[in-house]
Design goal:
182 residues; alpha+beta; Endonuclease, Chain A; 36% helix; 23% strand
């Protein structure tokens, strides 16, 4: 049975090669690493994100597929106004959305970039002060908060944030500045 399984796996890799590469990193976080977990509905993901943004001191880096949440966008602008460096990388779909946080952020002098190098730039990440990572299935949208089944993790770990920061910077290098709706 094992030989047949191995043979079928080999055949599948030859017939259907993996088109992209996945960078896997194993990281064991210290036992006292703070992790907050939220589930929607009724989990308050938007408020949890805003709370973290309000605590930012130096830098907020956003990577998002869909970004239409007015409260999160406003919190980012407020952080920018109090001197926190804020930048966002968004999926190319945000160029043509009826409402996009991209336009709101750009109009408030926050650098916004469009990642068009992928079929979908599906990340949902916020890195705060190089030590807090916000991630999960939760899109930064009103619908995600009010209609969907979603999850959100807020993890405070410089080690983990370093990996997310490296990934964010890689996507930033191939992204183009947002110039408004096309």
């Amino acid at each position: 049975m094992i030989r047949i399984s191995a043979f079928l796996t080999l055949v599948l890799f030859v017939l259907f090669p993996i088109s992209g590469q996945c960078l896997a990193v194993s990281l064991i976080l210290p036992q006292n690493t703070p992790v907050n977990v939220y589930f929607i509905p009724k989990g308050g993901c938007t408020n949890a994100i805003i709370n973290e943004i309000e605590q930012a001191k130096t830098e907020i880096l956003v990577q998002a597929y869909s970004f239409t949440s007015a409260p999160i966008a406003k919190a980012l602008v407020d952080a920018h106004k109090r001197g926190v460096s804020v930048e966002a990388i968004l999926d190319k779909s945000q160029r043509t959305e009826k409402y996009s946080g991209a336009t709101f952020l750009a109009n408030n002098r926050i650098p916004v970039y469009i990642d068009a190098a992928h079929a979908i730039a599906h990340n949902k990440i916020i890195i705060i002060d190089k030590q807090t990572v916000i991630t999960g299935s939760f899109n930064f949208t009103k619908a995600a908060e009010s209609k969907n089944a979603e999850n959100l993790l807020i993890i405070t770990s410089k080690d983990l944030a370093d990996y997310y920061l490296d990934n964010w910077q890689g996507h930033r290098r191939h992204s183009e500045p947002y110039r408004g709706r096309y």
